[in-house]
Structures are given as structure tokens and as C-alpha cells.
Description:
By secondary structure, the protein is of the alpha+beta class. 18% of the residues lie in helices and 36% in strands. It starts with 8 loop residues before the first strand and ends with a strand. 15% of the residues are buried.
Amino acid sequence: VFQSIGIGVGITAGKVFIGNVGTEKRFDFTVIGLDVNLAQRLASDAKDGEILISEKVKEQLDDRFAWEQITSYHLKGIERPITIYAIK
């Protein structure tokens, strides 16, 4: 018997910094950038089973995917309003 887990997904595209960051005592491999923050905000706002995407991703989708626009709104830590889309 499988149990359902509640996961929301956020996807965007853009430039990021990826690499090792830190000092000899604490060294991490990480990703940093505005689009990393945006993807995290989308994921945290997504309901269970929902996939939220940015306009950059929507523009790259072909007609195999159906989507619906969600009203533009401000996400925490992002200055300008973002238009969000949900994959149906």
C-alpha cells in the first residue's frame, strides 16, 4: 500500500551561481541567485500536487502542456510582482 505525500513544485529558469562556498571549517556545495529564490518561493506557495512555473518557463513550453495563469502577486523577497502559472 502506497501512501500519498504532499509536495508542491516550483520551477523557473535563469542565471545562478553554482559551486563550492565557505571556508575550510565549513564548506558547502550550493546554488545562489534570484531564480533559486523564486523557485523556492513558488514551491512553498504550491499546494499539494501543484506545479507552479514562472513566465520564463511558460514561454518555453510547447503545446503538450496545459497551463493556467494565476494572478500576478508579490512573493516574499522578490521586488517586482511575478506572474505565476500552474500546470494543469
